[in-house]
Amino acid sequence: SSRVVEIQSQMSERAVELLGLPEDRPCLLLDVGCGSGLSGDYISEEGHYWIGMDISSAMLDVAVEREVEGDLLLADVGHGIPFRPGTFDGCISISAVQWLCNADKKSHSPPKRLYRFFSTLYTALARGSRAVLQLYPENSEQLELITAQAMRAGFTGGMVVDYPNSAKAKKFFLCLFVGASGTLPKGLGAECADGEETHQAKFTNERTRFRNAKGKPVKKCRDWILEKKERRRRQGKEVRADTKYTGRKRRPRF
């Protein structure tokens, strides 16, 4: 629908803006999950060149029919980004990276696929460039898994959240730096009612707290308990409701 197209091109515009590209020369960008090439159209309008990757041949056929200007590659980014080191001046991705969190085949391990994607993307990007990945995370665990693998692969940066106080307009952009770390751009509409800005989530190279190497929560922590309760609910068992006290340690004076 035209509404989807409109939102898609707004997000593409914002993603390219967050790349902070040099204004004096055309750049070569990678578009991950390029679909029918809507983001590519915007990149071309801005005078840059692009290569798009997508796992759907049907979507790429549409892009070919639309005679987009970029080059297209049918590939699963979970297998890695097959380009020479330093090929790209930037990477954007609209609504695609969260799919790597799904294990569609028995052999798929989301943490491994994410790490393969991020580590090969890191190599394919020129030093000092950025990747801006707009995504729709299902929950905070998914966000944490994605960012943890990006940081493991060497990226710095973090999440830029546009319109954090709006249910409809809220958008997540994972803004990643290669090599020299830049300052994280500000999210749009992030001022609170009293004029104060909300603090951006920053990610460091520390290992994420709740997960061990396999991407599973550490035993007995809150996440682990909630996941276990969720599994039992799915099995139709009686489970106590979750509250803010779930998984909290009692103070020693009990």
Automatic annotation (TrEMBL):
Q: Name one GO cellular component term.
A: cytoplasm
Concerning Pfam families, the annotation shows: Methyltransf_11, WBS_methylT
Q: Which UniProt keywords apply?
A: Cytoplasm, Methyltransferase, Nucleus, S-adenosyl-L-methionine, Transferase
User: Could you name the domain of life of the organism this protein comes from?
Assistant: Eukaryota
SUPFAM superfamilies reported for this sequence? S-adenosyl-L-methionine-dependent methyltransferases
Q: Which reaction does it catalyse?
A: a guanosine in 18S rRNA + S-adenosyl-L-methionine = an N(7)-methylguanosine in 18S rRNA + S-adenosyl-L-homocysteine
The 18S rRNA (guanine(1575)-N(7))-methyltransferase Bud23 C-terminal domain, residue ranges: 176-251
Protein location: Cytoplasm; Nucleus
Renumbered residue ranges of the record's region Disordered: 230-254
What molecular functions are annotated in GO for this chain?
rRNA (guanine) methyltransferase activity
Its BP terms in the Gene Ontology are: rRNA (guanine-N7)-methylation
Q: Where is the Methyltransferase type domain?
A: 30-106
Compositional bias ranges of the Basic and acidic residues kind:
236-245
Describe its function: S-adenosyl-L-methionine-dependent methyltransferase that specifically methylates the N(7) position of a guanine in 18S rRNA. Requires the methyltransferase adapter protein TRM112 for full rRNA methyltransferase activity. Involved in the pre-rRNA processing steps leading to small-subunit rRNA production independently of its RNA-modifying catalytic activity. Important for biogenesis end export of the 40S ribosomal subunit independent on its methyltransferase activity. Locus-specific steroid receptor coactivator.
What family is it from? Belongs to the class I-like SAM-binding methyltransferase superfamily. BUD23/WBSCR22 family.
Query: Subunit structure, per the record?
Result: Heterodimer with TRMT112; this heterodimerization is necessary for the metabolic stability and activity of the catalytic subunit BUD23. Interacts with GRIP1.
Q: What is this protein called?
A: 18S rRNA (guanine-N(7))-methyltransferase
